[in-house]
Design a protein that fits this description.
Structural class: alpha/beta
CATH superfamily of the largest domain: NAD(P)-binding Rossmann-like Domain
Largest sheet: 7 strands, parallel
Distance between the termini: 13 Å
Number of strands: 16
Helix content: 25-40%
Shape: elongated
CATH class of the largest domain: Alpha Beta
CATH topology of the largest domain: Rossmann fold
Strand content: 15-25%
CATH architecture of the largest domain: 3-Layer(aba) Sandwich
Length: about 400
């Protein structure tokens, strides 16, 4: 029986993927086998030694101490793409909100006073101040062409927009899902110079912190609209406000309100609504629950942010060993040697690495004795060992 600790409310649809005859779901456990989390900040949390995996029901993992878990041989899973449609819809809606001045126009209407005739007169007199522009023919720059960025880019093409994408790390598989009409930018500055809108779909790391700043904004096309539904800190808010005050930038729509942004008439700041739909929450929970289950029951790794992907089918009548270790020489040979000394025949083996981590899945013909497991665990560089019957 596995125990799963939930640190936030996790969608029932996701939890139902963990059958009750094999899993106990608890919001308080001293020795959980895995943790499911959404937004709970785990950096100051004492994570029990019993934890074998952590699943984030969403894409970003800033709230999880990933490096610490890596040193313990604990994979951290997320749900990339599960909330892509929800974020895409909000980005498209936000472009319309910005180009049609919906936020300012609504504020204007809410301040109107008087009877019907008076309000009609004020409306007709005031509406010309909120005339906007349309999307077809405008250029959208998409920073980050992962699952969400691709959906946004393809939707914008369908709306008649031109799209420029910037993502030095795009994969061949990712490119297959991208419209052929999306143009490639060789640099962020090149994109800024051509874009009427910029939308960010990247994690907050050193390379993306204040990516849009006072200097880069001087290279932007006049009248730029900025959309940030990725992470707070990617856009320098003070620089963005200054650009709007100068008339260089047109508007800013984001998911991260601050006192500075709330007070500005050309800003629409939302309360972190990017993935806040029932469908997105369900999709994220289902995806991460299935990944946690596959890891606990089979040792398979898919959509981990710190482990290599390893998926190995189970052969009937075999017994499985999984080993997480530092990516250093001789660990694999030591595993094979210890199994061989015990007379265990290796039926199948997969070993992959990712950065400083390596992960091995081994299927053998007989149950693996505890002393063999301990010998492998004691080997230099080994971080975590599990047996799966």
């Amino acid at each position: 029986m596995y125990t799963i600790l939930t640190l936030n409310n996790i969608s029932v649809e996701g939890l139902e993927r963990l059958p009750s005859d094999a899993y106990t779901i608890a919001d308080n456990s001293e020795q959980p086998d895995a943790i499911l989390v959404r937004s709970h900040k785990m950096h100051d949390m004492a994570i029990p030694a019993s934890v074998k995996a952590i699943g984030r029901a969403g894409a970003g993992v800033n709230n999880i101490p990933v490096e610490q878990m890596s040193t313990r041989g604990v994979p951290v899973f997320n749900a990339p793409g599960a909330n892509a449609n929800a974020v895409k819809e909000l980005v498209i809606a936000s472009m319309l909100i910005a180009c049609r001045n919906i936020g300012m126009a609504r504020d204007f209407v809410r301040r109107l006073e008087g009877d019907d005739a008076s309000i009609d007169k004020q409306t007709e007199a005031g509406k010309k101040k909120y005339a906007g522009f349309e999307l077809p023919g405008r250029t959208l720059g998409v920073v980050g062409l992962g699952a969400i960025g691709r959906e946004v880019a393809n939707a914008a093409i369908a709306l008649g927009m031109k799209v420029i994408g910037f993502d030095p790390g795009i994969t061949v598989e990712g490119a297959w899902h991208l419209s052929s009409q999306v143009q490639k930018a060789n640099s962020f500055d090149e994109m800024l110079a051509q874009s009427d809108f910029i939308t960010f779909h990247v994690p907050l790391i050193d390379a993306t912190r204040n990516m849009l700043n006072a200097e880069s904004l001087t290279k932007a096309k006049k009248g730029l609209v900025v959309l940030n539904f990725a992470r707070k800190g990617i856009v320098d808010d003070e620089a963005m406000v200054a650009a709007m005050d100068r008339g260089d930038a047109y508007g800013y729509v984001c998911d991260f309100p601050t006192p500075l942004l709330i007070a500005h008439p050309r800003v629409v700041a939302l309360p972190h609504l990017g993935a806040s739909t029932k469908e997105a929450e369900d999709n994220c929970a289902v995806m991460v629950a299935e990944q946690i289950r596959d890891y606990l029951e089979n040792g398979n790794v898919k959509n981990s942010v710190n482990f290599p992907e390893v998926i190995q089918a189970r052969s009937p009548g075999t017994y499985r060993l999984t080993v997480a270790n530092a990516n250093v020489p001789n660990v694999l040979s030591q595993i094979s040697s210890d199994l061989g000394k015990a007379g265990l025949n290796i039926i199948d083996m997969v070993n992959k690495s990712r950065g400083d981590l390596a992960y091995t899945v081994v299927d053998v013909d007989r149950p693996i004795p505890a002393d063999v497991v301990q010998a492998i665990a004691d080997s230099d560089g080994v971080l975590a060992v599990r047996t799966i019957g």
